[in-house]
Design goal:
2 copies of one chain form a homodimer. Chain A is an alpha+beta fold. Chain A contains 9 helices and 8 strands. Chain A binds a DNA duplex through helix 3.
Amino acid sequence: MDGIDSELRYRVQVLDRALDVLDCFTFTERELSLAEIVRKTGLNKTTIKRILSNLTRRKYLHQDPGTKKYRLGLRLFELGGIVFSSFSLRKAADHYMEYFRDKTGATVLMGTVMEDQLVYIDKREGHSLIRISSEIGWRRPLNYGMLGMVLLAYRDTRYVKKILGAYPLKPYTRNSIIDEGQFFTRLEEIRKRGYVIEREEAVEGIIGIAAPIKDYTEKTVAALGIALPIGQDKTGDLFNALANELKKACENISSNMGFKKKDSHTR
Amino acid sequence: MDGIDSELRYRVQVLDRALDVLDCFTFTERELSLAEIVRKTGLNKTTIKRILSNLTRRKYLHQDPGTKKYRLGLRLFELGGIVFSSFSLRKAADHYMEYFRDKTGATVLMGTVMEDQLVYIDKREGHSLIRISSEIGWRRPLNYGMLGMVLLAYRDTRYVKKILGAYPLKPYTRNSIIDEGQFFTRLEEIRKRGYVIEREEAVEGIIGIAAPIKDYTEKTVAALGIALPIGQDKTGDLFNALANELKKACENISSNMGFKKKDSHTR
DNA sequence: TAACTGTGGTTCATTATATGAAACTTTAAA
DNA sequence: TTTAAAGTTTCATATAATGAACCACAGTTA
């Protein structure tokens, strides 16, 4: 892609290292001690201590006075909130996300493309016992699951090829599409129907239904999806009905975002 | 408070400056050019350029290829998401927040205390035309509005005095309490009733109803509030009924958080 | 209770590394 | 076409980051 070493000439060592420190914290590793960070980064203890002191003073980290361990701080929550609030899509989709969550009891997710990756920008968690693991802010390859497929379906072939080159199709489950030809057929199908129904292709036991959201530029700017536990709906009629309803909802959201549907006779 | 210059001995200049750069971005100023950042920070152009390059490379900032302007990046959204997801209260309160939003059509807010300040950790935006301005992640003085009062009501007097010392009561509206004695009476009243009804004390035209959430430590860990547009309810009966319902809801959330109500005869 | 091990915290001489003035290159306005 | 302002790059300079070595403490082992 563009610039493997983009602007490495301007590299600032300490800053880079400080960001390495922040990178140590993840959804699963929320609390780290100085020593743990030293091990993870391989940097000198003093350097880490200095960086930690600074980040803590500026509230980018928070130190538990008792255990001395560090957590990500309030400032990151604030800055993240600024980014979060800038997704105007969220407001437009809010009502529908709740509607589908309440109707199905399942988890509803919204995702968009950022830097050639799928990013979850909002979700409504379902009440069901079967949960899919997903958090706002998580990134996935753009060819992953219902949202990825919808987002790719409306991009040109060159772009899709580029993505598949960078992130080859992986067998997440036994139903996952791993053949590129099949994948392109699938995208074609999404464009034709205006939605996707994905049966345990990303997560075992989960059926995904998703549709695209477009804005005034007529580009697909996001995808909205419902992650249902696989169930009793043998014929699939319920899923089809739900998919159509979701498609309608996404069309409404799209028109709120300024999308004007072309007259069908205009081609 | 604690350590005006906490650990300034370990100060790392570049890092501090890089964080100054991030501080330039706010909810209202989302996009900045290099020159604007230079003006805001007063630092040398080259230094800023170096810092921007690094932060951009690491996705803490994002540069618009067209306008060359910078925005806060995806990485901050991710890191913020990690902090956001760590508030388990959010999950416990989710259902009730939506319930009250749908019932009243007003905005529902949840706040907690962080570093002696009130921080909004979740919200459900109402459908009403009259909106209060509040974003997840925003901070306010702990004596501000319905959430602040509830959070302070269950703290000891010394702490409240300390907060009032640091942030004197301000006349946000003509109804705001600015007298400390009155303020303490108010807190007393909140403890007695178990909720607060605040009439245009924080925002003109808005009535706030809020109640405390406690956890297994029996401490008040958060407050949940509804911001209603001032209306036709002359007698206040509807507000009282709503307040009681909110109080009940918060008791339920509290018991989900492990709070065990003491038997009343135990005192 | 002494030796050991793994923490966090501190000092300070050394030089690698951040710095900023100045020059250069766009881009935008006049 | 000139002027101005923004963005970019270079490079000599010394400042500011570095990390080995050391201290202090707590918990564990012998």
